[in-house]
């Protein structure tokens, strides 16, 4: 196993700069998730780590080894592709053994490794089938098996679950994390799915427009987003934003005339100069109903029952607002809902940076 | 009557209609072939206009006449001329298919996968060569072959055929390579393959059906080609079968039964080839490699 370090990685395709000086460090045995919207450069970064693309500038090290200019086959990595990329003309057994055969591993070792991995992933009864005779989930497993069987120093995953249906995706996600804990191999995982990012990662790297916006453990990135982009990207439903709030003596003067009291102004430090305009962010789950001393009142426009909770689409002044409450809360369309805010995020309207001290 | 019964009746009528249509189509397609067969086995010298193509005075005389034609060799035993000519055809066609595929595979792969200087103009030039009929190049090819001393040789004819087979095969195979996902090669390279190994062990097997079709097509066009063969080959023992067959129908006489018998015999190798190639033509060999 090995630590992965990428320093000031720049990647251009012609005139397009896809990565603009990205730094990544994944400790030995760590599970890093690269997450971001389409076109943010996360897949490109992964392909650079794999050696499938060449860096324009920057340096990639696996442990002490400089691999920046090495071919993929010399990097001792395994990769699981979004499309699975199983060799269509080879049986599952030969797909699993492909890499070992190329490395001239002796047949007895190959047989025992294939047996071990197929038992681990429940592929025993499929070994003689061709990929086209497998279901999506089975193909995904073979792709995982092909990576595991080689015992590489580093696992790379390129959106490996996006072709599975929702139920299977949740199941395989758990399996991937279990496998990682079992094998202890360093892993880098690319996804645009924030649930995968939150659940799998030791470290989340949120990428946006070719730069890393924030790095940290999932909890930290979720609770203390450093930028408005990160705040909006992670969390489902997305965070609510209110622009144009003004810092006053007793709290935040909201555009509609209401005032939102600041319960813990200390967390924002010196950023709260009176008169300053800020953007305000509240996660849908950070609202609570409080009839006696509400922070704000919102007009309910639509209520969706999602089983355990209600997703309420409301309006505060002109701004749309999503609120998630317990399904027993009995909110109906047309209600005026008195809400208190449990946790508040403030951002600089110009830079998008969090004002948290 | 129940709706389902009605549905079945409509289905039956439709089915009868469809079958009638198919029978007519099959008859339309097979009628000339049946005529050729009947002609080849008929003892009567002159073909007569008959509706039903059945052999009159059945005989194997024409087949024997064609298949066992001989060439007198001064001071030696006669040579089996037709055998020689059929072998010419097969050897030339196989060589054309081989040359076409061997040159086209790497070229098409490069065009499908790499960006390089002159790629677009090269493809356009290649496409331009496809716009002219092969016959248009007959005279220049004749002059070139003459210059090379290859006039009247099998290799010379293969060279001529390659001028059309190669560009066609390149286009055919470029399309095939483009449909093979890059992920497959990249997976192989991550698994430890060099670029060439990825090509040989993953891309080539995945493209096998397309390569088989391309080779078959090159074989067929060479096997059926007449004009260039007639122009470039001077001696009887060098002829390919289309030239041989044509010689039964001359300006002053037409030996239709022999022509028909010859046509039947020369179609046998093609049928055998198709039978062998069938295995490689299984559609969707790449299905299931990626996604679902």
TrEMBL record, chain A:
Coiled coil: none
GO terms of molecular function: ATP binding
Keyword Cell membrane tagged: no
Domain ABC transporter: 4-234
Keywords: ATP-binding, Nucleotide-binding, Transport
Record flagged with keyword RNA-binding: no
SUPFAM superfamilies, per database record: MOP-like, P-loop containing nucleoside triphosphate hydrolases
Top-level taxon of the source organism: Bacteria
Entries under NCBIfam families matching the protein: PRK11650.1
Stated name of the protein: Sn-glycerol-3-phosphate ABC transporter ATP-binding protein UgpC
Organism: Nannocystis pusilla
Gene name per UniProt: ugpC
UniProtKB/TrEMBL annotation, chain B:
Superkingdom as given in the UniProt entry: Bacteria
The keyword Membrane is assigned to this record: yes
Keywords annotated in UniProt: Cell membrane, Membrane, Sugar transport, Transmembrane, Transmembrane helix, Transport
Protein's UniProt keywords contain Chaperone: no
Domain spans labelled ABC transmembrane type-1: 86-277
Family, per entry: Belongs to the binding-protein-dependent transport system permease family. MalFG subfamily.
Transmembrane segments annotated in the record for this chain: 20-41, 90-111, 123-145, 151-173, 202-223, 259-277
Name of this protein: Maltose/maltodextrin transport system permease protein MalG
InterPro entries: BP-dep_ABC_trans_perm (IPR050901), MetI-like (IPR000515), MetI-like_sf (IPR035906)
Compartment(s) where it occurs, according to its Swiss-Prot or TrEMBL record: Cell membrane
Function: Part of the ABC transporter complex MalEFGK involved in maltose/maltodextrin import. Probably responsible for the translocation of the substrate across the membrane.
Membrane topology summary: Multi-pass membrane protein
A Pfam family per the record: BPD_transp_1
């Amino acid at each position: 196993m090995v630590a992965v370090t990428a320093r000031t990685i720049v990647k251009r395709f012609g005139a397009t700069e896809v990565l603009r000086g990205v730094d990544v460090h994944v400790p030995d045995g760590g599970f890093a998730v690269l997450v971001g919207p389409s076109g943010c450069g996360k897949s490109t970064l992964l392909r650079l780590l794999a050696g499938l693309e060449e860096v324009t500038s920057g340096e990639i090290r696996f442990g002490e080894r400089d691999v920046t200019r090495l071919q993929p086959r010399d990097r001792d990595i395994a990769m699981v592709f979004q499309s699975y990329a199983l060799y269509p003309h080879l049986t599952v057994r030969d797909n699993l053994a492909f890499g070992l055969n190329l490395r001239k591993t002796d047949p007895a070792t190959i047989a025992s490794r294939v047996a071990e991995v197929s038992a681990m992933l429940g592929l025993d009864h499929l070994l003689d089938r061709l990929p086209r005779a497998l279901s999506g989930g089975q193909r995904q497993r073979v792709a995982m098996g092909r990576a595991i069987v080689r015992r590489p120093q580093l696992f790379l995953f390129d959106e490996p679950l996006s072709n599975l249906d929702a139920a299977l995706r949740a199941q395989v996600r758990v399996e991937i994390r279990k496998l990682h804990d079992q094998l202890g191999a360093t892993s880098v995982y690319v996804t645009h799915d924030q649930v995968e990012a939150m659940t799998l990662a030791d470290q989340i790297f949120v990428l946006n427009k070719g730069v890393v916006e924030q790095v940290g453990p999932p909890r930290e990135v979720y609770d203390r987003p450093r930028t408005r982009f990160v705040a909006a990207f992670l969390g489902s439903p997305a965070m609510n934003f209110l622009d144009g709030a003004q810092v006053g003596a007793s709290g935040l003067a909201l555009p509609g005339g209401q005032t939102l009291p600041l319960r813990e102004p200390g967390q924002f430090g010196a950023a709260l100069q009176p008169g300053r305009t800020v953007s305000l962010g509240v996660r849908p789950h950070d609202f609570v109903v409080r009839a006696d001393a509400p922070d704000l009142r919102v007009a309910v426009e639509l209520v969706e029952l999602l089983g355990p909770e209600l997703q309420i689409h409301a309006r505060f002044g002109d701004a749309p607002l999503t609120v998630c409450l317990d399904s027993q809360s009995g909110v109906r369309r047309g209600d005026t809902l008195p809400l208190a805010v449990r946790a508040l995020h403030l951002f600089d309207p110009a830079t998008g940076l969090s004002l948290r001290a | 009557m129940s709706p389902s019964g009605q549905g079945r009746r409509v289905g039956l009528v439709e089915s009868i209609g469809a079958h009638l249509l198919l029978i007519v189509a099959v008859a339309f397609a097979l009628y000339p072939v049946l005529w050729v067969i009947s002609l080849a086995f008929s003892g009567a010298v002159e073909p007569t206009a008959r509706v039903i193509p059945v052999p009159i005075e059945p005989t194997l005389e024409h087949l024997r006449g064609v298949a066992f034609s001989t060439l007198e060799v001064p001071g030696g035993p006669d040579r089996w001329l037709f055998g020689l000519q059929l072998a010419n055809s097969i050897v030339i066609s196989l060589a054309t298919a081989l040359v076409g595929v061997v040159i086209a595979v790497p070229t098409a792969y490069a065009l499908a996968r790499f960006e390089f200087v002159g790629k677009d103009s090269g493809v356009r030039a290649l496409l331009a060569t496809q716009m002219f009929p092969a016959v248009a190049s007959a005279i220049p090819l004749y002059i070139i072959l003459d210059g090379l001393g290859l006039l009247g040789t099998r290799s010379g004819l293969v060279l001529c055929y390659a001028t059309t087979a190669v560009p066609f095969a390149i286009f055919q195979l470029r399309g095939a390579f483009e449909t093979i996902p890059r992920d497959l090669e990249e997976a192989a390279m991550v698994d430890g393959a060099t670029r060439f190994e990825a090509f040989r062990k993953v891309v080539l097997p995945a493209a096998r059906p397309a390569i088989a079709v391309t080779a078959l097509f090159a074989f067929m066009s060479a096997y059926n080609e007449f004009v260039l063969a007639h122009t470039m080959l001077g001696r009887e023992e060098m002829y390919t079968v289309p030239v041989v067959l044509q010689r039964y129908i001359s300006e002053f006489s037409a030996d239709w039964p022999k022509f028909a018998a010859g046509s039947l015999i020369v179609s046998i190798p093609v049928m055998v080839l198709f039978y062998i190639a069938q295995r490689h033509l299984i559609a969707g060999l790449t299905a299931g490699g990626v996604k679902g």
